[in-house]
């Protein structure tokens, strides 16, 4: 279910950064690797691909090129492509270009769509950083 991807959605070469089930992290995570969260993160997570596993939780923003949520995100999720699995819970906005929401997922917040250029012009990990920068 949680396959490592690079910012273009291709299989990445290195291993993901894994937050285990018994691990709680307080603080922001910034990485060029994919991140799998099975435990708890209190802070912002920024990576090319973020997967929040069933039982995993993020209390803060998740910013990535692709996001897959099977656990809980209490904060903003922002990605070009977002997948919200059955049983997942999102308590905050979901900013996306592409979204898949499975039956049984819970979303309590707005889900604004953004055009492809919004993400392409954004700095990594959301986009390539080419072109004009999106407004803050």
Task: Give keywords.
136 residues; mainly beta; 4% helix
Structural overview:
The relative contact order is 0.14. This protein is mainly beta and 136 residues long. Strands 1-4-7-10-13-16 form a 6-stranded parallel sheet, with no helix packed on it. Strands 2-5-8-11-14-17 form a 6-stranded parallel sheet, with no helix packed on it. The longest helix is centred in the C-terminal third of the chain and has 5 residues. The protein has one domain. The chain is built from 1 helix and 17 strands. The termini are far apart.
List the helices and strands and how they pair.
Layout: E1 17-19, E2 24-26, E3 29-30, E4 35-37, E5 40-42, E6 45-46, E7 49-52, E8 57-59, E9 62-63, E10 66-69, E11 72-74, E12 77-78, E13 81-84, E14 89-90, E15 94-95, E16 98-101, E17 106-107, H1 116-120
Parallel strand pairs: 1-4, 2-5, 3-6, 4-7, 5-8, 6-9, 7-10, 8-11, 9-12, 10-13, 11-14, 12-15, 13-16, 14-17
Helix content estimate: under 10%
Low-confidence stretches: 131-136
N-to-C CA distance: 33 Å
Portion of residues in beta strands equals 35-45%
Strand order of the largest sheet: 1-4-7-10-13-16
In DSSP terms (H or I, runs of 4 or more residues), the helix count works out at 1
Instruction: List the secondary-structure elements in sequence, H or E.
Output: EEEEEEEEEEEEEEEEEH
| Global geometry | globular
Tally of strands: 17
Q: How many domains, as an integer? A: 1
Helix and strand composition category: mainly beta
Rounded radius of gyration (Å): 14 Å
Query: Which sheet architecture does the biggest sheet show?
Result: 6 strands, parallel
What is the arithmetic mean of pLDDT? 87
